[in-house]
């Protein structure tokens, strides 16, 4: 093995720049892709002006809820400024939380508590209005619940007397626990979107990383094609170890090299994007690495020229990434045709599976390749 | 002693090598000539253990080609017709690369001396910048790293200048006569065959090569 390592290092010294490029591509490309996508997502948020005239906790909470909406870009300002910017079409619409908002809500009065201003260019007014109305409705609903409880306490002469704040707090707690209206758009094995990573949530970070990892693996495995050139193969066949053994040992070296970089990549991604990172995920990465190294190796054995190898590897990587749900969600497709989930090694990886049908089948094919008797002695 | 007995090789229905028998002693330089497609390279590949034996038998001393092909590889040096080296590597790196995977361990000094013996002195030069003659010398030097008993050369001097050809020929002749190597050599250059080889085997039905060599006083046997 030492001899193989020495010979491989001789090759790597000659290809240091390209080797580093391909090794670092998955982490750099994933970070760039996700950061750019998030930036783009922020740029496409709907700009609205928010004027808060009520200086109460409930008005602040409403303001915060609007601000947290990932589709809305909120600019807080005074009324005059907001209307000027609306006239100049720098804002899609302006919403004013009127003075007495909390008092009106608590008094169960829902008229003119939030006022909206639009222009003839307010294209996204309706969805934004609906979103804000739903937040107001939430506050109003809690308040109404408090009134009903209060009326019931008085009617049935209950000894226990709950305060308005207690009922509202309990109402909010129940709503959050039940999450009856909550839904999210997510990929396999993806953490629930939170305020910290809400921009990231729409992109499957591990899926993007896996796509680049697969592409990188294919391009790094061009050594198999190069070392299978007839003239070189003859020479390598007559050396101390059989040619297949030479290929296998080199494959193991690449497995270690790429495996180490995978773990480094994963640590960086987990920290950078605040993703979960546990032992079962490490096993899933090792399994995925084993799988894609075998895919690239067995695929490259079929080629005699690097040019055709490269142009074939690219569509294969993209096809597997798409069909595996790494770039776009394919839940609907899989629900309709379950067999589609077996077409790509990305699916088991994104689900966090360690043992997959891909891994087992590839191990069998790999073993057959190694033990099968060749027509030549090599 | 290399002994080939009733060797036959078919590719499908096509007979490439038909009932070939011959013997070569240690220290002999034997030429193998014939027209293109006559089966020279196939015969050389069989002798190099790269193509399995189907009919007939080949023995080298006590080793049998069918059963002991791994052991035989230790005794054989094969110089392929194409230059089989890493173009991006220097001469030194190529030698070190193949030494690492070779049957025997050699020091850098020994590897360099091997190249110098072949008048290949551009030790640190990139292979792709070497002349055709120097590349051919490197191609042969790599095959000699493990000090083989039998050297099989498939047109080792094709496409190179006369000076390099003479240097390679002279080196190979010394290798056979002073170091006892058995050399089997294919070439289309009859002048080279005449000057270098002790005996010549002609493969194929075309009498052209036999007549030409006999006219120049060379003993030729048709296989």
Notes on the protein architecture:
The complex is a heterodimer of chains A (378) and B (223). Chain A has 378 residues and is mainly alpha-helical. Chain A is built from 16 helices and four strands. Chain A has a four-stranded mixed beta sheet with strand order 2-1-3-4, sandwiched between helices. Chain A is elongated, with a radius of gyration of 30 Å. Chain B is of the alpha/beta class and 223 residues long. The two termini of chain B are 18 Å apart. In chain B, strands 6-7-8-3-9-10 form a six-stranded parallel beta sheet, sandwiched between helices. Chain B has a four-stranded antiparallel beta sheet with strand order 2-1-4-5, with helices on one face. The longest helix of chain B is centred in the last third of the chain and has 18 residues, at 162-179. In chain B, 36% of the residues lie in helices and 25% in strands. The model of chain B has no long low-confidence stretch (mean pLDDT 87). Chain B has one domain (2-84, 148-222): Rossmann fold. The interface between A and B is medium-sized, with 23 and 26 residues.
């Amino acid at each position: 093995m030492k001899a193989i390592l020495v010979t491989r290092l001789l090759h790597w010294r000659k290809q240091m720049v390209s080797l580093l490029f391909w090794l670092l591509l998955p982490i750099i490309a994933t970070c760039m892709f996700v950061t750019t996508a998030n930036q783009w997502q922020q740029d496409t948020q709907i700009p609205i002006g928010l004027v808060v005239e009520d200086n109460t906790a409930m008005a602040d909470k409403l303001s915060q809820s609007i601000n947290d909406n990932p589709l809305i870009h909120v600019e807080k300002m005074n009324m005059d400024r907001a209307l000027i910017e609306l006239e100049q079409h720098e804002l899609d619409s302006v919403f004013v939380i009127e003075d007495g908002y909390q008092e009106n809500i608590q008094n169960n009065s829902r008229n003119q508590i939030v006022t909206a201003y639009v222009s003839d260019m307010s294209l996204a007014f309706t969805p934004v209005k609906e979103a804000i109305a739903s937040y107001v409705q939430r506050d109003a609903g809690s308040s109404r619940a408090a009134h009903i409880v209060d009326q019931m306490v008085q009617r049935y002469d209950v000894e226990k007397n709950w305060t308005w704040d207690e009922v509202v707090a309990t109402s909010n707690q129940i709503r959050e626990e039940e999450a009856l209206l909550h839904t999210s758009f997510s990929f396999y094995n993806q953490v629930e979107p939170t305020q910290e990573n809400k921009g990231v949530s729409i992109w499957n970070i591990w899926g993007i990383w896996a796509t680049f990892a697969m592409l990188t693996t294919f391009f790094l495995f061009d050594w198999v094609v190069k070392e299978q050139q007839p003239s070189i193969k003859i020479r390598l066949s007559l050396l101390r170890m059989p040619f297949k053994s030479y290929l296998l040992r080199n494959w193991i070296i690449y497995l270690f090299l790429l495996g180490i970089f995978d773990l480094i990549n994963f640590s960086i991604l987990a920290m950078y994007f605040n993703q979960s990172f546990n032992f079962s995920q490490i096993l899933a990465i090792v399994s995925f690495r084993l799988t894609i190294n075998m895919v690239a190796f067995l695929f490259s054995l079929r080629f005699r020229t690097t040019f055709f190898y490269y142009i074939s590897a690219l569509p294969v990587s993209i096809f597997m990434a798409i069909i595996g749900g790494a770039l776009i969600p394919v839940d609907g497709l899989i629900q309709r045709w379950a067999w589609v989930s077996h077409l790509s090694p990305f699916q088991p990886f994104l689900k966090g599976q360690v043992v997959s049908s891909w891994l087992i089948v590839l191990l069998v094919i790999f073993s057959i390749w190694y033990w099968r008797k060749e027509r030549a002695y090599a | 002693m290399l002994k080939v007995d009733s060797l036959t090789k078919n590719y499908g229905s096509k007979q490439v090598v038909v009932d070939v028998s011959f013997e070569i002693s240690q220290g002999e330089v034997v030429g193998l000539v014939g027209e293109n497609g006559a089966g020279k390279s196939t015969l050389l590949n069989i002798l190099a253990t790269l193509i399995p034996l189907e009919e007939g038998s080949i023995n080298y001393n006590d080793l049998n080609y069918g059963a002991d092909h791994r052991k035989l590889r230790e005794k054989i040096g094969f110089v392929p017709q194409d230059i089989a080296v890493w173009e991006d590597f220097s001469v030194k790196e190529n030698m070190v690369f193949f030494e690492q995977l070779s049957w025997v361990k050699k020091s850098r000094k020994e590897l360099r001396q091997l190249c110098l013996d072949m008048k290949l002195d551009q030790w640190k030069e990139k292979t792709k910048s070497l002349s055709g003659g120097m590349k051919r010398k490197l191609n042969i030097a790599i095959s000699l790293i493990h000090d083989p008993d039998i050297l099989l050369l498939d047109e080792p001097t094709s496409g190179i200048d006369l000076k390099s050809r003479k240097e390679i020929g002279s080196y190979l002749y010394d290798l056979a006569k002073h170091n006892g190597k058995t050399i089997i050599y294919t070439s289309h250059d009859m002048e080279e065959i005449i000057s270098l080889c002790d005996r010549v085997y002609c493969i194929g039905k075309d009498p052209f090569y036999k007549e030409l060599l006999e006219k120049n006083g060379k003993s030729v046997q048709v296989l």
